[in-house]
């Protein structure tokens, strides 16, 4: 007779094609081995929902007109009761508020929230709402020590209530040995050109302009260098305008959104993160898993991922000259690139694997369930 499992529902805005959403899907697919997993989206399903539905994980829509809308909260609470949910795991800011309140109303035994960043909390109302709902939660997961520190300070939370569980990736997906020639041809990149890339949402906080200003400096010293920008978002027009303004049209490829991230990483020689804000960058972990040296700005949890001088370089934000000098250093030193890339790969395998994330998350659930004396038939 199969052993009964606890019922776990993840509450999220939607399952759009974002890095955090992809990672959460990978986690849920693995949690399915030990829990009856389902998902509630408070906006819409999103394009990645079939990845879960194809594996027999139910994806519900529990639409919210506003994060405190009474009818929306009642509908979510009703769904949680109907599905006899033992654990609610909310994900990102709005679900961390609405999902926690809905779970509290439904008297779900275990409520856990996942905090990726607190930088977008720029109003007193947002901070006040999180302060109120913190008391409803058993634990808060922070994706880095830096996020934990910022969260506890902002909402005056007990540090004991916040557990750091780092994001994780499946290194085997990115380590696959694939030929570079076809993709280089598709991008019209010459075989010997060093390729410096940045992958992520085209948003103001990613500060692609500093990356382009660094590219301008590098291209003057190394004319054969090629720069690749992958992603979509509201800053695309500004980025393209900056490329034209700096006369970099023959050096920079703005590739848009792509599904083949492991293959794109495979053609890079150097990976760059130029953000002015980060929680804990999944893009950095993916690049390290692909064996690439990383140049990252000294923000958020970047320093917790990248070991300066070992797996890459940490540079101050908005300093294109310093960023360019590190890029040129790596371009001229292939042995250093290879060494840093290998050390980065080993670091991901040991510290930032999806397996580690799965184990630590499962152990957190079990710890709370045991502490509360909750049994599978309750």
UniProtKB/TrEMBL annotation:
Gene3D superfamilies per UniProt: Glycogen Phosphorylase B
InterPro entries in the cross-refs: Glyco_trans_1, Glyco_trans_4-like_N, PelF-like
Domain of life: Bacteria
Every Glycosyl transferase family domain range: 180-347
Parts forming coiled coils: none
Residues covered by the Glycosyltransferase subfamily 4-like N-terminal domain: 18-171
SUPFAM superfamilies: UDP-Glycosyltransferase/glycogen phosphorylase (SSF53756)
Pfam families linked: Glyco_transf_4, Glycos_transf_1
GO molecular function: glycosyltransferase activity
NCBIfam families: PelF
Protein name: Glycosyltransferase
Organism: Candidatus Schekmanbacteria bacterium RIFCSPLOWO2_12_FULL_38_15
Lineage of the organism: Bacteria, Candidatus Schekmaniibacteriota
